[in-house]
Specification:
The chain has helices at residues 2-10, 16-20, 95-103, 123-126, 130-144, 165-173, 180-190, 195-202, 212-215; strands at residues 23-30, 39-45, 52-56, 65-69, 78-84, 107-112, 153-163, 226-230, 249-253. The protein is of the alpha/beta class. It has a nine-stranded mixed beta sheet, with helices on both faces. A hairpin with an 8-residue loop joins strand 3 (52-56) and strand 4 (65-69). Helix 1 (2-10) crosses helix 3. The chain is globular. Mean pLDDT is 91; it is low at 14-19.
């Protein structure tokens, strides 16, 4: 359901050929100056077939997503979507979304954010939320200079999208700024009633001791024209002043709470 909502927001109008063909898929990896390790991720794009069939993200609980690894890039000009996973997640957990958008006519980039993925997790370093924006910016820079996509990217329609912590990343990339004091006050108030705040306390992380200037800074990327945030996290303390620089087009998807979630 959610990929249809994002498709509407992007104004995607897939042709019948795109609707029938699986998304093209290609792993990517690139160095960045602010991380010790490579940033890894994937490109998902409209494809006319070819390559080899592959299943992404299948395990004992979830069905996987079918893609065409190395498939031919379809002709046309496509909007771009940057997708950010949640805290402790990875690109495979959102493959239904990334592949679904590519099948409907978007070029999609997703990354495994260093320090906050399933296999690379450091809660303290992962709280430096601005590095997640930098990951996506670096990936977009790489995509823009990829000769295979020359003339195929509609840079007037560039979306940042994400789930939970990734939803915050998307909003931050679109111009939302944070409030560290509000975040700290939230955890002070709710304590162990919040599993996230409990994890911070267990890890000996004092939110009051973090760099407020870095946390509250603006990380807006002027290329972003639309944001979609699914259950965004870390929004505590945010007021109207914090959204002053946010792009006009924002889609927020709430998954509900309690027994109906």
């Amino acid at each position: 359901m959610k990929h249809f909502a994002l498709s509407i927001a992007l104004g995607l109008t897939a042709t019948s050929a795109m609707a029938q063909d699986l998304a093209g898929y290609e792993p990517v990896a690139f160095p960045v100056s602010y991380q010790d390790n490579l940033v890894t991720g994937a490109l998902w794009y409209p494809s006319t077939g070819g390559g080899s069939a592959e299943t992404i993200g299948e395990n004992g609980v979830f069905y996987g997503t079918q893609v065409q690894a190395g498939g031919a890039i379809a002709a046309g000009t496509f909007p771009v979507v940057l997708v950010s996973h949640g805290l402790g997640g990875n690109i495979r957990t959102l493959s239904w979304l990334t592949a679904g958008l590519a099948e409907r006519g978007a070029v999609v980039v997703s990354v495994d954010h260093p320090n906050s993925t399933t296999a690379d997790f450091d809660l303290r370093k992962g709280l430096d939320h601005w590095t997640r924006v930098q990951d996506l910016q670096a990936a977009l820079d790489k995509l823009e200079t990829d000769p295979r996509f020359e003339g195929r990217l509609d840079m007037t329609r560039v979306m940042a999208a994400g789930f939970s912590y990734g939803g915050w990343t998307a909003l931050s990339m679109g111009g939302l700024t944070g409030d560290l004091a509000g975040y700290a006050a939230h955890c002070d108030a709710v304590g162990a009633a919040s599993s996230h705040c409990a994890d911070l306390a267990k890890g000996g992380i004092d939110l009051h001791g973090l760099d407020a200037a870095a946390w509250n800074g603006s990380y807006k990327d002027p290329r972003i024209t639309l944001v979609a945030a699914i259950d965004p996290a870390l929004h505590y303390g945010v007021t109207a002043a914090h959204v002053a620089g946010l792009v006009d087009k924002v889609l927020r998807v709430g998954l509900g709470g309690g027994g109906d979630r």
